[in-house]
Specification:
Layout (H helix, E strand, L loop, with lengths): L1 H24 L48 H4 L4 E12 L20 E13 L8 E12 L22 E13 L2 E9 L19 H5 L3 E10 L4 E8 L16 E9 L5 E12 L5 E13 L4 E18 L2 E19 L4 E18 L4 E21 L2 E12 L11 E12 L1
Antiparallel strand pairs: 1-2, 1-16, 2-3, 3-4, 4-5, 5-6, 6-7, 7-8, 8-9, 9-10, 10-11, 11-12, 12-13, 13-14, 14-15, 15-16
């Protein structure tokens, strides 16, 4: 009996040591740390932009396949520079067979009954590694080519080399320099948004398709983003930006800077993590429109195998302008909740379910006659998916998704529901 107790204690401490070792092996930035509900911590929620999202293999925890090793280039490693990437390909079946072969408003698998090369993604970075002490300089650049890119391009950047009508485009989601001093770091340039739970990089999401919250959350910003780690449990972010997916101003008479900010807190036992992030902009000619977005994300590790995520997000665009001497008001609101439940079946299989509700409201009013044009509807979605990872650098993600609405939003605005059967494969290199 005593021997069994000793063996159990050894096993418990070995498991803890292994988890801490895996975390220590990763970059200092928590975004690149192992994901988490199988390990000792929860998955970081876009809490910093210094690194890419978690590795595909990390989704399966310490007892799964060995961690995937990035390409080793001795000439670059000498300077702390890392390179890598992945290839994502997919096929989505839509039994309704829409004439325009579009699954929208679903993205990124927006093509019906069609093959898609979603992302051929390459990245190179020099991560900050000051461990919260001292001074360091880094940076990052990402390039991606495929059918996803036309959702991620920024005004005034990729338009110089892409054809507007091409379904296959080349995008540069990130291009920034980074400076760190002790617990403070700041990036300058083009970076992925810190708002929301789901990521633009395919390797960082459980599901292939995206929630409708992701549709209205910003994709990229150009500007600055500062991160301050108050404690090991709490960190704050704040910065300036030129508008979502904007490299140069969209209007010649409006070069106003917007703000982005938020924070993340995790419990001492690492079972709960909470993040809030928001942005605000003045857009349109002379900034007559205000554009605001927020997202609240809560994660709870129910057990070592079971993980729950809740997201509440909203987007508002409000404009007031004088037209022919009369006040014109244009209000557009989008909001929704999204819930996720993930279960680790074994070292190679995980199951997940996602349910979302989204509401849409738009009101246009002209003071001349006080006439209002109002559009108001709800959209619901349920997604069931699996992740299969037989090798550290490969993951297969089949899913079944059902969407329905109280207004005709699918098949070219002719149907109130849509069924999608999709699968994608990701190969990391």
């Amino acid at each position: 009996m005593v021997r069994k107790v000793i063996l159990f204690a050894r096993h418990r401490y070995v498991a803890k040591f292994t988890a801490l070792l895996l975390i220590a092996m990763g970059p200092a930035s928590a975004v690149a740390a192992p994901t988490a509900f199988e390990l000792a911590v929860l998955r970081p929620i876009k809490e910093s932009l210094q690194q890419d999202g978690p590795l595909t293999a990390d989704l399966f925890g310490q007892q799964g396949p060995p961690r995937f090793q990035r390409m080793a280039l001795p000439g670059l490693c000498r300077y702390g520079i890392k390179v890598g990437g992945w290839l994502e390909q997919s096929f989505t079946v839509n039994p309704n067979n829409p004439p325009d072969r579009s699954n929208q408003p679903v993205i990124f698998n927006d093509r019906a009954n069609d093959y898609q090369l979603n992302q051929l993604w390459l990245h190179a970075s020099r991560p900050i590694r000051n461990d919260g002490h001292g001074f360091d300089i880094g940076g990052r650049v990402d390039l991606t080519y495929g059918t996803d890119s036309h959702f991620t391009t920024s005004h005034g950047l990729e338009s110089s080399w892409n054809s507007a009508n091409s379904s296959m485009q080349l995008a540069m989601p990130q291009l920034y320099a980074e400076v760190a001093l002790n617990r403070f770091s700041i990036i300058f340039g083009h970076y992925l948004t810190p708002i929301g739970y789901e990521y633009t990089p395919a390797v960082s999401n459980f599901f292939y398709s995206h929630s409708y919250n992701f549709n209205f959350e910003p994709g990229t910003y150009t500007g600055t983003l500062a991160t301050y780690r108050v404690t090991d449990q709490l960190q704050l972010i704040a910065g300036f930006q030129r508008g979502e997916q904007t490299w140069t101003p969209r209007y010649m008479d409006n070069d106003r800077l917007g703000i982005v900010g938020g924070g993340q807190w995790s419990s001492l036992n690492k079972r709960v993590a909470i993040q809030f992030a928001m942005s605000a902009n003045g857009i349109g000619p002379a900034g007559v429109y205000s554009n605001n977005t927020y997202a609240l994300v809560v994660q709870y590790r129910i057990s070592r195998r079971l993980h729950y995520v809740f997201e509440q997000a909203g987007w508002q665009q409000l404009g007031r302008a004088f037209l022919s001497g009369h006040l014109s008001v244009d209000a557009d609101f989008r909001y929704g909740t999204c819930q996720y439940l993930f279960y680790k079946i074994n070292d190679y299989w995980r199951a997940g379910v996602r349910f979302s509700w989204n509401g849409y409201y738009r009101m246009q009013e002209t003071a001349a006659d006080a006439a209002r044009n109002v559009s108001n509807y709800n959209v619901y979605s349920t997604t069931l998916g699996l992740n299969w990872c037989p090798r550290p650098a490969f993951v297969l993600r089949p899913e079944i998704r059902i969407d329905w609405s109280d207004n005709a939003r699918f098949d070219g605005f002719t149907s109130t529901n849509q069924l999608l059967l999709a699968v994608d494969a990701i190969v990391k290199f």
